[in-house]
């Protein structure tokens, strides 16, 4: 008997997440054929030997006897209170544990926040390049992601005047990703203040994805958005996945701050959605209080002599030596967003494709990267790599990239 085609929901027609898409599936096929693939498409610290601090593991184990029941839909109180203490240490004094939601990573909380906010036809201002979950979380609900440019020639820092020019009567929210994924930009205080002022004056929800908040290099300084957005609703997203190298725990948080009285209906809608999924992973929540207190081991990795610092330096050195590449040095996060100067190749920039290049790199050199177009940019000459391999392996990766581009040049 022939069955009619089972179609996916129309809500998913415009949803894309190419970081784990066709290239990643091809990489899996190559691995099954016996090839060793260097996977630089995902910021997954545990896959490169990073481990969460041991004190977090102890906190989980010692509290396992309390982890059998569901927790409150917002999360356990000690975890939420620890997030409050962190915010107060950063100068955000108007939040309590009741303003904090613990979720199964930031990804779930971003989806909940957008689901509670958006109606078909609404608009959300999202940076370009962006972490593509943000665009997906908007369009999956029938709304429109309006991408404001963060241009390479400006160090991937947006122009607030250009951002405001995109606001319409359908705009509901303004998203910032700081430190930025994929570009590694860290926004200056004056830029963040100008964006916060736009959100306040135009009555927009100000959404700050700060999952990489303490992953900084050199003299880069992180400014929490919630310290600047006082007269509108501010949503801050953070979690254990990156700074604490604990992706598998799936623990993130969402903090409501700023003006909240006008948003009670919306915040209650977020709580309704949180209740429908019952609660987030309970054992992992017991790591939050330990993680946010005491020594912050991320600084040992990002300062001179640290592994992330060394790998970042290896990327910058390899790009400087390259005949074909350039990069805006990342000032934060765990990525480099590298440009291929296609005009230095015989085929020229008109025929260069970041998707085709990434596929060739995978098939011929066994390196998996994320094409720049995966991050909702209009140009097709960038790719993203993580900074998670050690410096020696990263030097090897860029030697393979240079070899492929030499092959292009010789064709």
What does this structure look like?
Helix 1 runs parallel beside helix 13 (354-365), helix 4 (105-117) packs parallel to helix 5 (132-139) and helix 4 (105-117) crosses helix 8. By secondary structure, the protein is of the alpha/beta class. The chain is built from 14 helices and 13 strands. 36% of the residues lie in helices and 15% in strands. The protein has 2 domains: 12-41 and 304-410, Aspartate Aminotransferase, domain 1; 54-292, Type I PLP-dependent aspartate aminotransferase-like (Major domain) (Aspartate Aminotransferase, domain 2, 3-Layer(aba) Sandwich), CATH 3.40.640.10. The chain has helices at 22-32, 54-62, 77-89, 105-117, 132-139, 160-165, 189-201, 264-276, 282-285, 288-292, 298-302, 307-321, 354-365, 391-410, and strands at residues 38-39, 100-103, 123-128, 144-149, 171-177, 205-209, 233-239, 252-258, 325-327, 335-340, 367-368, 370-371, 382-386. Helix 5 (132-139) links the parallel strand 3 and strand 4. The strands form 3 sheets. Strands 2-8-7-6-5-3-4 form a 7-stranded mixed β-sheet, sandwiched between helices.
């Amino acid at each position: 008997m022939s069955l009619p085609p089972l179609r996916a929901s129309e809500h998913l027609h415009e949803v894309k997440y190419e970081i784990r898409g066709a290239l990643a599936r091809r990489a899996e096929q190559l691995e099954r054929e016996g090839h060793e693939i260097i996977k630089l498409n995902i910021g997954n610290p545990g896959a490169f030997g990073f481990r969460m601090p041991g004190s977090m593991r102890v906190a989980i184990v010692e509290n396992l006897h309390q982890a059998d029941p569901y927790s409150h839909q917002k999360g356990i109180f000690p975890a939420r209170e620890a997030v409050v203490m962190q915010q107060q240490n950063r100068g955000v004094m108007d939040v309590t544990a009741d303003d904090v939601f613990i979720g199964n990573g930031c990804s779930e909380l971003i989806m909940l926040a957008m689901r509670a906010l958006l109606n078909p036809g609404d608009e959300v201002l999202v940076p370009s390049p962006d972490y593509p979950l943000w665009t997906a979380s908007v369009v999956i609900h029938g709304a429109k992601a309006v991408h404001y440019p963060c241009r390479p020639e400006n160090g991937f820092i947006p122009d607030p005047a250009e951002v405001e020019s995109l606001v319409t009567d359908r705009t509901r929210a303004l998203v910032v990703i700081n430190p930025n994924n994929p570009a590694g930009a860290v926004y200056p205080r004056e830029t963040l203040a100008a964006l916060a002022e736009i959100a306040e004056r135009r009555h927009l929800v100000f959404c700050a994805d700060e999952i990489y908040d303490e992953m900084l290099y050199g003299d880069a300084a992180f400014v929490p958005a919630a310290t600047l957005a006082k007269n509108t609703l501010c949503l801050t997203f953070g979690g254990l996945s990156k700074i604490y190298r604990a992706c598998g725990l799936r623990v993130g948080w969402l903090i409501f701050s700023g003006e909240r009285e006008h948003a009670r209906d919306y915040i209650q809608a977020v709580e309704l959605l949180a209740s429908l999924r019952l609660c987030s992973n309970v054992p992992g929540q017991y790591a939050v209080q330990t993680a946010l207190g005491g020594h912050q081991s991320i600084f040992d990795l990002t300062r001179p002599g640290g592994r992330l610092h060394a790998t970042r330096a290896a990327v910058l050195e390899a790009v400087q030596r390259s005949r074909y590449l350039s990069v805006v040095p990342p000032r934060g996060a765990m990525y480099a967003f590298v440009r291929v100067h296609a005009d230095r190749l015989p085929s020229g920039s008109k025929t260069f494709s970041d998707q085709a290049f990434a596929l060739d790199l995978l098939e011929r050199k066994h390196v998996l990267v994320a094409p720049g177009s995966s991050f909702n940019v209009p140009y097709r000459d960038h790719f993203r790599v993580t900074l998670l391999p050690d410096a020696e392996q990263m030097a090897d990766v860029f030697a393979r990239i240079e070899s492929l581009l030499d092959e292009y040049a010789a064709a």
